[in-house]
Structures
1.
Amino acid sequence: MQKPKLVLIGNGMAGVRTLEELYKLKPDMYDVTVFGAEPHPNYNRILLSPVLAGEQTVQDIILNDLDWYAEHNITLHLNKKVVKIDRVNRKVIAEDGTEAPYDRLLLATGSNPFILPVPGKDLPGVITYRDIYDTEQMIEAAKVHKHAVVIGGGLLGLEAANGLMLRGMDVTVVHLGEWLLERQLDKTAGKLLQKSLEDRGLKFLLMKQTAELVAGESGRVASVKFKDGEAIPADLVVMAVGIRPNYELAESAGLHCNRGIVVNDTLQTFDPKIYAIGECVNHRGVAYGLVAPLFEMAKVAANHLASYGIGTYKGSILSTKLKVTGIDLFSAGNFMGGDDTEDIILSDPYGGVYKRLVVQGDKLVGACLYGDTADGAWYFKLIREGKAIHELRDRLMFGESEVGDTGHQGHNKAAAMADSDEVCGCNGITKGTIVQAIKEKGLFTVDDVKKCTKASGSCGSCKGLVEQILINTLGTSFQAAPKDKAICGCTDHGHEAIRKAIRDQHLTSIPDTMKALEWRTPNGCATCRPALNYYLISTWPKEAKDDPQSRFINERAHGNIQKDGTFSVIPQMKGGVTNSSELRRIADVADKYAIPMMKVTGGQRIDLLGVKKEDLVHVWADLGMNSGHAYGKSIRTVKTCVGSEFCRFGTQNSTQMGIDLETMLANMWSPHKVKLAVSGCPRNCAESGIKDVGVIGVDSGWEIYVAGNGGIKTEVAQFFVKVKTAEEVKEYSGAFLQLYREEGFYLERTVHYIHRVGLEYVKGKVVADEANRKALYERLLFSLEGLPDPWQARIDGAQKHEFKMLEVV
Amino acid sequence: MSEFKKICKLEEIPQLGSRVVKCKNGNDIAIFRNAEDKVFALTDKCPHKGGPLSQGIVYGETVACPLHGWQIGLDTGEAAAPDVGCTNRHAVKVEGGEVYLEL
């Protein structure tokens, strides 16, 4: 069968990105033809400024080389401008007569620079700044000429001016507005920027209107004349006064245009066979000129071209960064504010720092940062997600400290790090390696960086730093992760959507779920299958069947795999309490199986390390103890102190409380590991302050704290509720954990769950609403009731093949 | 001379799972079975740090190493980018419901 034909007009970032997204979904659906007016393969237009500044070369910024087109069997027409779309016969015609028929057409014609209609605009030496050709012209001019004038004090103009200055020219920026970057900065920040650029040697003429470009004797431009009569010398004039969507071709084909090709939320034009994306479109009245929205559009357009038909594009909130090395500037959202907004401002002109946060009601709607932009990513995330900020408001200005503490020398500001500093302590990746990968391989998201360099791929504590490095390196082209981000490459659905579908559609098996949600892979991957398995068994206890093949080896073998392939065995020791006969049995097992190492764990138990897999079941049988679940996304242990039975300070019987909790929660699977502690008095010897649920006995009852964490990022647990009786401790902690089990995302610890939904929400569901608390507690007990101890089950013969090797040959 | 030796019945290997064939020379061999009942055999050592691939999660025609998550192609023995490395493959076939391994 012949494949349908897809033609792309415009070989730039938006169009080719759509093809890449399409190949991810349906690699072989279309015969693809691409027309590009420039003689180059797809390159990263945003990085033209570093090329001009001499920090990178043209070769460095190529995103898809010619081999890429060949690999995907794309018919590529470079240097051919399409001049006609014949919609009746469904074909496009290029300047040189080349024709290509289409079944689907994708327009990504981008934009053209706006040229001031002044006398002399066509003189030699007057150029715009848009593509590789322009850049090369500027580099050539800088070699022989002295005076450059850049008209336009926007992002592009300033980057051009900076580049020309670095190439040795004497540069003046002419700007009509009262301050620089008036679309990205407020006045104060604009003035700070001007000062710092002046210190570097740039000159500025503000509120100046250009009247005429005057030729010299050679016929080349020689000076710029202004409306007020003043004139300055100019051997090179760069017009950077804005861009206009390039929609002439579409308009001439009779497509509805209005300052751009008009498209709907699926990026379809008024001709259903024709899609348009990028700078050439008008979506809901907005034409975008930055790259992040273009990429969001590309995802949606690809989804529809692949006939999935589920994505919609609803517009973007923008963030901006100037790519002039050494100048930190960031703005996002509505940073100018209005009548119904309030400002939080930090201003330190001497230190060169200015931050303005614009708050509307309970939400952050805009941010403008100058001098210290390390928290730009965080503010941008808050703006995009529209999160309520009342809990953070008094700390908002001082930024996020979400970055984990461990594994990167305590650094939490990417900008302050040297290239040789380690960012990812797990994989040994330095800042320099990440920056290089971002530039050379054209990476745009944290996931890209993870895939390419492995940074943030293990413990994830440096994800915030990687995000900052991306923003610092890319500026406008950085793509923040969407709110409900796809769980893995097998699907477009995020955790929230998947949990909801499993609940609403009563899905009880992994194949059914993958079918209902249109998984792209036949049986998922090592990321999504364990998540699905957990969602199924936690949503439909006693109904959904556990799938051992979708569990990580630790949960299949019920031990923790070690680097040499042996396992560790940690028997349950409720509350850390043991006795002489248990200890004797453990000692005997250690002798019998020649256990190479025994260790007391942090969770008050005993670890037998180096057990061969085929010995596991025998070891368990000889121990005669239950599994301690020290290997699972599950209840781990309840750590306790001695408590009132022996301790002279103890106010409550914390050991018994711990034993009771551990008994209640035995065999509980959860989104991630769950650790508890019970202390008998506020001296808190059991360290309840860094546990998922920490209980502290006081004279009048028990205080319960939740969402603490002693791991990657030390998080102090937050006060949840104070109760009187031990029975209440079980009910409140059980209800809290059940809510987390029902709503948490797979591999999300309680602290991250609470960060996502808010402590107030959880208190509302568990503390304030008694009926709901009792219902949650009931559901927890129901799902745990009758679960066998996994070690005993295997001693009795379950999953035999897992622990037996095949014939020795 | 190498020859195919009968190892086990196909159904003794779980779908999307594997079994280990113990070898005297110490290089154990992992036999994998995927959802389509295709069978593959690789030396049970990840090219990264020697992790036992037999203990990994199997999907499509790939296994994820249990130690650090390297993704090894069952058919090729090669690690997926950005990782680079290769594990030995062994010839394996299924006839009449029995699995044979070339030794």
Note: Residues 5-111+245-305 of chain A form a domain with the FAD/NAD(P)-binding domain fold (CATH 3.50.50.60).
2.
Amino acid sequence: MSAVIEEHHHDDHHHGPAKGIMRWVLTTNHKDIGTLYLWFSFAMFLLGGTFALVIRAELFQPGLQIVHPEFFNQMTTMHGLVMVFGAVMPAFVGLANWLIPMQIGAPDMALPRMNNYSFWILPFAFGMLALTLFSEAGAPNFGWTFYAPLSTEYAPPSVTYFIFAVHLMGISSIMGSINVIVTILNMRTPGMTLMQMPLFVWTWLITAYLLIAVMPVLAGVVTMMLMDIHFGTAFFSAGGGGDPVLFQHVFWFFGHPEVYIMILPAFGVVSAIIPTFARKKLFGYASMVYASASIAFLSFIVWAHHMFTVGMPLSGELYFMYATMLIAVPTGVKVFNWVATMWQGAMTFETPMLFAIAFVILFTIGGFSGLMLAIAPADFQYHDTYFVVAHFHYVLVPGSVFSIMAAVYYWIPKWTGNMYDETLGKTHFWLSFVGINITFFPQHFIGLAGMPRRIPDYALQFADYNMISSIGAFIFGFSQLLFLFIVIKTIRGGKPATAQVWDGAHGLEWTVPSPAPYHTFTTPEGVNLKEAHG
Amino acid sequence: MDKAKRSRWLVALSLLLSSSALYADWTVNMRKGVTEISEKVYDLHMIIFGVCVVIGILVFGAMIVSMLMHRKSLGVEPATFHENHKLEFIWTIIPIVILLVMAVPATQTLNAMYDAGNAEIDIEVRGYQWKWQYTYLNDDPTQEVKFMSSLLTPQDEIYNKAAKREHYLLDVDNELVIPVDTRVRFLVTAEDVIHSWWVPDFAIKRDAIPGFVHEAWTVAKKTGIYRGQCAELCGKDHGFMPVVVRVVEKDEYNTWLAEKQAEAAAVYEIVGKEWTQDELMAEGEAVYNRVCAACHQANGQGLPPAFPSLVGSPLITGPIEGHLDIVLNGKAGTAMQAFGAQLNAAEIAAVVTYERNAWGNNRGDSIQPREVNEMMAGQ
Amino acid sequence: MQEQNNGKLVLKLGAAAIGMFGFGFALVPLYEVFCDLTGLNGKTGGQYTEAESQQKNADRVVTIQFLANNNAGMPWEFRPVVRTMKVHPGEMNSTSFYVKNPAKTAITAQAVPSVTPFMAANYLHKTECFCFDQQRLDSGASMDMPLRFIIDSEIPEDVDTLTLSYTLFDITEQMQGQAATE
């Protein structure tokens, strides 16, 4: 894959990039590293997608046809881990690398060397995780939430590699976030205040703080697991005076902010795209910033809504229910603002806009099911069923993943200098849109009807919707090969893009030529601040 | 069948078109259930769902109108407004009001769920990998009715070698039996990993956590059989440990309980008698298929490496005492559990005898329930 | 100039990350304190020493149930001698649990108590409990393990049944492991 990109860079004779493979290994250029992150993320997206298709193939019909329950559990676990930590998070880091310096008029990320390290840790972490699939007792099989004691006393030996891989991912994320924060706070072009930054930069700034706050907690919880498994401590074992529920509290203290880590940058992307294609300024910029910040704050105090059924006292249930319901307020503000941005605009519907609008609609549906899940008494029926699966896939796939695709279509002309093929792009969108809804909408029904999640086989009354869901999954999955084709085609050639690319686009990244030169904004004098917030 | 299937497809289609059909068919909606609590939960679910639908119609409606009317191709000029404090204030306040209104019934329902009162019957529910154990608490712990409840669906149905019958994967050998209109308290805990005991028709979902006991209670208003499943990933056969509760009239319950108590006494007798090889083999096969086949497979070949084959294994070719020891006490560091507490001596003797003589193992030896009992007592 | 600023900020953020790693571990004792205060996970406290201060409340009767269970791999026979007791708050009660080790080897066990409803955990005071110590039984041996407790006279009105459950864990290996490292 890297060969393709190299070729492109050979084509344009800008100064800078070294030749050969070592360019990618040693690079400290934010654009190169952004590219590496994005390709890595796409590879992981396909890997995690393959796992998902194994799951959906097994669930196509009742009965066990393709895999054994043990392997099925490994698939659900690896699918979750690879998609969350391998696909979605690195994709946003990739976008951050490409865009943040260009959007704030900085020549590069603040800490280029560390930037290189934080990327190159990832292939090792995920290589190790993926290799556990070939170990004798198999890969981790305890779900991506790895509740103790299933993940400690009852785990396969590969759990140790899993723990080490999580540590590596954590270190990579923390280094990446430090880099983002330092870049944003210290490297903005003179004259750009915080409240003049594009929303993508804002949401990433908040995300980076979230990452620094919670990735170490994740590292802590897996370290405790490691100690329980190998060093005889009993953090999570009742026999030694520990408590398995403690694991869940610590995990979700990380886990809930993690949810927003995966969606806040998506908010930023969509807040960039909708104004461009509505040809109208983003409605309520300031309230968008405040809403993002309050979502981030609330994410720290609602974690136990993932644990309504563990048997908390009434007061605990009530508190976490109320706090969770509150999140609907800032989230609602965001949705209303996007709709108000579209209102009385002059819209066109290029591929990025299609993905962005689908994001708003489908993410909102995910938000609705989230609000339903927040109602603790009802959650007793929803919890750990396919209703939850439908909910978080609605916020993660047509949410985060669609926003990433929207971002790629939106900025790829800037990255490559070529326009993508609009017809193919729209085809990709419609296949994805239809596929995703066929996959996940019926899961609401089977969840409400009582199908638990993470089961390899199911009762007969769930058969029809599972079959529909599997068909949708294959449509969605294979459409992504079209995405791969479109991206490669765009890298190789296409209609040359102008500097502004989209006639409604505003922001510093659109003031540099397309493709963006290897080095941009090397001096503050070159920055046209006026254009930045046009 | 085909017709039914087609009509269900139609239902699915019509659902996508109109959400009002959601009220009609339980297979696409939450069950109303048979307790006061489950009905409250259902109502709550429908209210919040209705609220979401209304907000959805407003928001998506505005988007659709906007997408239809505010297009560049219609030659419109974009407006220039980009904030409106009044509007922003309003759409912050309105959701808060809606949420406050929603919080009221939610809090009431939660309060009702947590209203622990005196129960007439206490049942301990204990999750095992991968079955449930029910103990009807009695003042004399030696006289208690206590049994395992595990999946009845044969492996052949799961592996598509036989047609799947009604209640596929939702049928157990021993149902939990409770009387109607009676307050029953469940004390939920687990043996090994976390499970979750879920009966949708009672709106009970309680995590079963090793070392901790959590309570839940119910008053079923209607007799019938209510089915649920384990709702927390608990390892390989998480999908194969259903929960089945039979709610019966009070008289029927008392009869049933008395019978069960008599059965428990009878087991002592069964254990005392001398069994023939054929009797042991027949009982052993039944026990094996119910308890062991999920891991070691019906043909004894297992699923190596996690679940070793029993055909010609050192365990079988070695002395019978070693074999018995593993079945009774499990094998540390592996998935092999201790069955000493789960099976009675007759079942253990039978299954050990069966394993040593099935699938061409032909060891020719056997062990009597009496001997198993002695070994357990005298170890 | 900017380089210096970057360095400072990196140090601060790095320190924050390390601090949060520590916070992850600090959640363990925080959780315990929180549970002690609220009875969140139904764990009972240690030995109770203020038995004299309790006033017997003869008007109220509270039912206490005893559950006894083995964790996976624990072969002992383990059961309460009585299943339920009706007691007056403030009054000293005693009962016992029967255990027998049918295994071929000596086994060390730790009993872990849990109370439901959770809010009752703070009102159950144990003056003597086999769960305070590890218990060791030789092969074939049996014994009655004593429990003495008081239900606090302040126990909330709406609690009329509480369940005290013990789970026995086989900790022979851990003990050997500790002995080996000592």
Note: Confidence is low (pLDDT under 50) at residues 15-26 of chain B.
